[in-house]
Amino acid sequence: MSRDWSVACLDCDDDVGIRDANHAEEGCRKLASDAPKLALMPGLIIDYRATYGIGGYGTVSTDWFVRHAGHRIRARDEYGEADGTCGKDAKCNCCERRFACGRDAEHGGECAPR
């Protein structure tokens, strides 16, 4: 299946802003794994296409990584599934909205958006 990928802070539900990066999960995973190092370098602009082999267009600022230092930074697809999360399709009990569970992969209890 064709999916666009980006990097997101799961604690804040904030996306770094990568767009149209189809089949870019490996590059996004590498970028996410470098988050602690990037958080130590404020003010830099990264061309993620050249540095991480991620398709799409644009750049990211290391300031985003500084703001989310210590948070759960993961590669996430356009459907909300992120590495290290449960990802099961679930439904809200009150409004019936469907979502991919954003809790940790081995969580106990009910699924939740994050």
- How large is the count of helical segments? 4
The CA-CA distance between the termini, in Å, is 24 Å
Structural class: alpha+beta
Can you list the strand order of the major beta sheet? 2-1-5
Average pLDDT works out at: 88
Estimate what percentage of residues fall within beta strands. Answer: 15-25%
Low-confidence segments, given as residue ranges, are: none
Write down the overall geometry: globular
- Main sheet attributes: strand count, strand direction, barrel closure: 3 strands, antiparallel
Q: How many runs of DSSP E, i.e. beta strands?
A: 7
Helix and strand layout, with pairings?
Layout: E1 5-9, E2 14-15, H1 25-33, H2 35-38, E3 45-46, H3 48-52, E4 60-61, H4 62-67, E5 73-77, E6 89-91, E7 98-100
Antiparallel strand pairs: 1-2, 1-5, 3-4, 6-7
General description of the model:
The protein is an alpha+beta fold and 114 residues long. 21% of the residues lie in helices and 19% in strands. A three-stranded antiparallel β-sheet has the order 2-1-5, covered by helices on one side. A two-stranded antiparallel ribbon has the order 3-4. The chain has a two-stranded antiparallel ribbon with strand order 6-7. Strand 1 and strand 2 form a beta hairpin. The model has no long low-confidence stretch (mean pLDDT 88).
Concise synopsis of the structure shown:
This protein is α+β, with helices and mostly antiparallel strands and 114 residues long. Helices cover 21% and strands 19% of the residues. The chain has 4 helices and 7 strands; from the N terminus they run ββααβαβαβββ.
